[in-house]
Amino acid sequence: MTHPPASSDAVLVVGAGISGAACARALAGAEVPVRLVDRGRRPGGRMASRRLDGRVVDLGASYLTAPEGSPFAAVVDGWVARGLARPWTDTFAVAGPDGLRDRRTGPVRYAAPGGLRALVEDLVEGLRPEAGLTVAAVVPADDAGHAVTVDGAPVRAAVLAMPDPQARRLLPEGSAAHAALHGADTWRPAIAVVLRFGERSWPADLHGAFVHDSDVLGWVADDGDRRGDGAPVLVAHTVPAFAAAHLEDPDAVVAPVVAAVRAALGLVAEPVAAVAHRWTFSAPGEQHDGTSGLVDGVGVCGDAWGERSSVGTAWASGDALGRRLAGV
Q1: Gyration radius (Cα) of the chain, Å
Q2: Do 122 and 170 belong together in one domain?
Q3: Contacts of 65 (CB under 8 A, 6+ apart)
């Protein structure tokens, strides 16, 4: 791992999830010099996809919605037109520990045939994101005229496009930017478990299921259905409290998650393979006022900035911050 080299004329965006990608794209569109860096090997953040047994599986965000007439809806329409996204469903099941209970209809959810990461990669096309770069400390600008610094090097501005707890660790305690992330300790964890079966044995119209009254399971997505290839793959997400108790050993949740999924969906078969993935900071526990934060040259954006946590909120937050920094 290396640190990003100095670039005092550019805005440094740290975090190449959808919020950071949207911010960097807005800056570049306004002809503001921008560098986009991420500690991971590829863009995506919590829209990560992973290849298992030769097939891409969505491990983080499960889908996206696009309010009609919103700027994000125009972005989604573009993805749909190019085959990167597709309308998935407006109806999910409701289940309990003892089985399926009901169906719930809501807005159209969109999925990505190539995995949700492909949508982030589309946003950063041409931006040359730099992978494998870590940041240790961000110091805001001050009244004495000192510029924002990232690991001691001056930058035009710094954007922390990441969960609040991770952003707060980079900022000096007592700074206004640090204080702006007051909800950092409310973020919730989750563990996603990919379950591959020998064949599909759940209802064809399941799509996904919200699980109520379970100490283990919160949500199950039919990954073959949302990807459109019909693969016998489910992705289960634990409830926060259960995840918090197993963050040091996520593989320990596999057996109880398998049992909970089989009971909730009425499955007889056992999966032939299961893989767990830990999300220490899966979702915010509370939302900030406004669409983004900008204090002393340090910007913060993501799904905690808006009415509710969602992919669309994260995009809108990053886009708004990029335009704010560009003065447009």
Answers
A1: 20
A2: yes
A3: 107, 108, 109, 110, 310, 311, 312
- First CA to last CA across the chain, in angstroms? 35
State which residues form the domain around 258: 62-115+188-283
Q: Quote the number of domains for the chain.
A: 2
- Cα-based torsion angle of the residue sequence 90, 290, 61, 161 in order, rounded to the nearest 10 degrees: 160
The confidence score (pLDDT) of residue 103 equals: 95
Residue 54 belongs to a domain = no
Do 178 and 315 lie in one domain? The reply is yes
Residue 5 has pLDDT above 70, yes or no: no
CB 106 within 8 A of CB 90: yes
Confidence (pTM): 0.95
Same domain flag for 129 and 106: no
State residue 4's pLDDT score.
54
Q: What is the DSSP letter of 196?
A: E
pLDDT tens digits along 199-230: 999 999 999 999 999 999 999 999 999 999 99
Residue 1 has pLDDT above 50, yes or no: no
Both 136 and 22 in one domain: the answer is yes
**What is the average pLDDT value for the chain, to the nearest integer?**
95
Burial 275-289 (b: 16+ CB within 10 A, else e): bbbbbbbbbbeeebe
CATH number at residue 293: 3.50.50.60
